[in-house]
Amino acid sequence: MERHVPEGSRRVNDAAFSGNGEPTTSPDFAPCMELVAGVLDDLDPDGNLQTILISNGSQVHKPQVQAGLTHLAARGGEVWFKLDGGTPLERSLLNGMEIPDQKVIDNLVQCSSLVRTRLQVMRVAVDGLAPDEESDGFWTDLVRSAQAAGAKVHDVLLYGLERKVHQPGAERLSKLPAEELLARGEAIKAELGLPVQVHP
Fold it and tell me: Is the pLDDT of residue 91 over 90?
């Protein structure tokens, strides 16, 4: 950082577990969370640095993952729970995993019972077309069902296509105009009563 970052910009905002793949599938997930928490306790005793896990939530039913989430919560960290589509088919296209709706609901309820949880939602055009009202309705209904089942969603992070998607079918995806994302953010606020941050 001293060599490559200008002096006024040298800061670490958070420690994030993410990447090409699902971090919680690692057998070392819980020990890693514990290790990072210990390092940050030493380097950042005031708790200014947050730990973030970006996850599709597919492994949250496993005891070792729940143990890792407990370490995450103990230091004020949070999960960014990826929910990019309202149907299994949409989620498969965007994330490469066709997780059934009920499993998504169960995972979101479990995750949010252990650690502060925000929804991370990517909104893109498919074959040049923005998601339609039916697609948006499926997503909203899925989140409502999770909330009714006990999910405690803190807020929503809505963003556009920022980097290349590697799974099959990615060539069908394209970035949406900023005004489309902003309008969808306002709709989510109105429909679910959740705070929404939009990053076009």
Answer: no
Residue ranges per domain, the chain?
A: 7-199
d(CA 88, CA 104) in angstroms, rounded, equals 9
Phi–psi pair at 103, nearest 5 degrees: -65, -40
Question: Exposed, middle or buried, 96 (CB in 10 Å: 0-12/13-18/19+)?
Answer: middle
For residue range 29-74, what is the model confidence (pLDDT) as tens digits?
999 999 998 898 888 888 888 999 999 999 999 999 999 999 999 9
Structure tokens of 57?
């939530």
Single-letter amino acid, residue 154? H
- Please tell me the distance from the alpha carbon of residue 153 to that of residue 146, in angstroms, as a whole number: 9
| 79 CB-near residues (< 8 Å, 6+ apart) | 52, 53, 54, 55, 57, 69, 72, 111, 115, 116, 117, 118
Closest CA to 116 of 158, 63, 154, 68: 154
Residues 6+ apart with CB under 8 A from 144: 192
Q: Report pTM.
A: 0.90
How many alpha carbons lie under 13 Å from residue 151 in its C-beta half-sphere? 26
Cα–Cα dist 54/118, whole Å: 10
Fold classification of 7-199 is TIM Barrel (3.20.20)
